[in-house]
């Protein structure tokens, strides 16, 4: 009575496949791997000058079939030529500041060849649907080749620290 930990308990759980996508910002390409094997290569676009996509290891935090993106949430006002307010398909959040993976059919001509977004990773509707259907919350997306660092705490950022640094904070 009043004592914890005096009995043995058993529980079980299963871990899903290791789904890791690598985005090469300079090459405008994403390579999707399941359990280490390449299962798809996707032409993408990432952030243009002044809206560069952050480098680093990110984790899918939410999945939404449709998501409204309003540039005012990032400080861009309606009278700014960079303003946007639209609904995107197959949105998966990677940072608290608003980087997502999502369909971007309006920029199809740039997929695989140029970075034209406001920081998100855009792709064709078919590729975005495929990625959405094959991804889950907790999957890893690593960004390489960019110049903008990912800030600590802007999403699930623990994978960006060494184990020694991370455990020192315990």
Description:
- The structure is a single chain.
- This protein is mainly beta and 170 residues long.
- Helix content is 9%, strand content 31%.
- It contains 2 helices and 9 strands; from the N terminus they run ββββββββαβα.
- It is globular and about 65 Å long.
- The mean pLDDT is 95.
| Order of strands, widest sheet | 3-2-1-9-4
* Biggest β-sheet strands, sense, barrel: 5 strands, mixed
Arithmetic mean pLDDT: 95
Going by helix content, strand content and strand pairing, the class is mainly beta
Helix content: under 10%
Strand elements, count:
9
Return the string of H and E elements: EEEEEEEEHEH
Distance between the termini: 31 Å
Characterize the overall form: globular
Give the low-pLDDT segments: none
- Count the helices. How many? 2
Strand content: 25-35%
* Global Rg: 18 Å
